[in-house]
Structure formats: C-alpha cells, structure tokens
Please model this.
Amino acid sequence: MAENEVVSLLGKLIRTRSYSGEEKAAVRELRLFFENAGFDEIATDRTGNLIGILRGNRKGPTILFDAHIDTVPVQDVNSWRHDPFGAEIEDGRMYGRGTSDMKGALAAMACAAARFKKTYGGDFAGRICIAAVVHEECFEGVAAREISRTFRPDLVVIGEASELNLKRGQRGRMEIRVETEGIPAHSSNPEKGLNAVYSMCKVIEALRALPAPENAFLGKGIMELTDIRSDPYPGASVVPEKCTVTYDRRLLTGETAGSVLAPIEKVLRELGEKDPSVRARAYVAEGRETCYTGAEIAGRRFFPAWEYPEEAPFVKKAYEALCESPLLNPVFSHYSFCTNGSHYAGEEQIPTIGFGPSEESLAHTVDESVAIADLVAAEDGYFRLMRAFTS
Ligand SMILES: [Zn+2]
Model:
C-alpha cells in the first residue's frame, strides 16, 4: 500500500521538472495530493513554499517536516543512462533528478501524513506540517525563514538523505569573496599597471596555508576555492584591474561570519605589509534569487552549523520512535552538506533532527536514484515520528 502511494507520488514529482525558481508545476502536483488526502489546511506564502497541515483535536506542539522541492539542473542529458525526468524504475530503484535530493523524502513525508490522517483522523495533540520548500539548492534556509515565521514549529524534521539514520547536527556553509585591486594598463606596457591576478596568486597561496578548524563530531571547517574571475572579462589587451575569488567555507558550531573572516583578514593584512603591491579585502558573499511567484529573496551567504547532544530529550524520543520500526536500524550521525536546518536550528534555535531515505553522496549526480525500499522505510519512520511527538 505505502509502496504504491509513495512510488506514484514520487513519479509525478520527478516527471515535473522543478529547478530552483521554477517549482510552480511541482508545487501544483503536490497540492493536488494534499487535497485528495484531505489535509485540513493547505497554505502557501510569498516565496511559493507549500505547506500541508493536519490539525489535532487537542493542544500540542507543531511538528514541521521540511523537504525542498527544487532540484539542481541536469547538466548533460546525454551522460544519463536514464531519462532524468522519466521516473524509470529498474532493480528496485527509481531514477531521476531529485529522486535522492530530495523529492523521495518529500513523497514519503506526504504519504506518511496521509496515512496518519486516515489512521487517526484528528485524534492527536498539536499540528503536523509538511513543508515543500523552494530555492534551497543555492540559498539554504532562506525561503525556510518564511515558514518558521508563520508556523513557529516546536520541532523540525529535515528529510535530506541520511541513509535512514538520525542526524543530530550539520556543518554550516559560508561563501567568502576575496578581491584584489590592480591598476589597469595596456598589456603591451604591463609595467605601467598592476596585475590584480598576480596579486591574487599570492593571496591564494597564503590562504591555502591557513589551518582548518576541527570539531570532533562535525569534522573540519574546510575552505575550498570554487571560482575565480578577472575584470574586465574577457580582457582585450588590458592588465586586469580586479580579481575576485569565491571560497566555500564549511562551518562548525559557534563560528560566526566575523570569526571566520578574522584570520583571513589577518593573512591579507600581513601580505600587504610585506608586499605593498598586494591590495586585498575579504567579505561575505551576498545572494539574491527570484522565486517562481516573482518574490525576491536576498541575504548574506552565511548558513550556520548546528549540533544537539544524543541525550537531548527530543533527540532521544525521535531515536526511540525510529527504533520501533521493523524497517529501520538507525545510528546517530551528522550531515556533511548544508540543509535548511541552518535556518531552523542554526538561526532560530528550534530543535531539529534529520532523517531521510538515500545517501548524501547521490545528491546532484548523473543517474541520481533512490531505493524504493528506502522510501517505504522512510515513510514508516516519518509516520512513527508524527505519532511519537503528537500523542
Ligand atoms: Zn537537498
């Protein structure tokens, strides 16, 4: 029963492409499911998030199940063995963009809520919200801000792939821009100018030597250069007057934008003192995205880390609920990638856990897929979490 429902809903969501900012049709598909399943209320907001709500007949907590409905684009269809929008099933796996990251979890959550409604009607305490969140892929936790403002959840379950284990923390992420300033000149007389790219080479070397901080649970706060650009670009016989690089810095708990920038700024300052031709500055990158509704979301690309102890009562309770499922055998771990949890737990300090089908390493891959057995087990896990926190 559960298998047919989850596979059918996931198939519809996979066949409906939903790149970030283009989620409208997939949202409509999910709304139909919520309507047919008799959800008590279906809400949306300016960013286009869709929230299906079940209301209990007694006062109680609001439990929010969070899954983003956007996916990263397919770069080269020809490199896929399966149609990325075909929802083909082979050897017990469904293939397609978003199967693993993370429409599979979204379908499992929605089906678990539908089964919960069928089983208990309104006989429970509090509220269960299934949130399909837009624009997560390059702007984690920003559209999610609208949801926590409206629904004030007491507990959030992030459905990102956890291999059906229980995540109690996550590294955060920050994008850092470093700029060097040069002096433009004709490239036939480069000595008249100052090449910003040569300065940047020195900066990059110096920053590579910075040690990464480490946390026993979350691992290393690694920093990786992800792009570089000279200005003007393309440069036609001109010594570039500016060079900009972006770093992706993974964050550990307790780190702030200021604490991450401080050692970088120190390196730039010392470099400039030794070699006055190096004029560089560092800052947090800003983002701006347009939602399918036309609304704009903007902010600094700073998404904090979070971590809760195994002994935290809500973590224990979730663990025990999952252990009761014959389909699950969860262990504790953390997410290496960034999720909407950065907002709920990192910014708002709302108790948050992660539990979802599939593996982190399958996100954004060619021939992305999810095991159907994982979907069925996830559906059962979500159902048990709903029961545990609202009885
Ligand atoms: Zn994801």
